[in-house]
Amino acid sequence: MSTKIKGVTVTLYSETQSGTDRFNQPIYTETAISVDNVLIGEPTTDEILSSTQIYGKKLAYTLAIPKEDTNDWVNKKIEINGELFQSYGYPTQGIEDNIPLDWNKKVKVERYG
Question: Is residue 75 classed exposed, middle or buried when 0-12, 13-18 and 19+ CB atoms within 10 A define those classes?
Answer without folding.
Answer: exposed
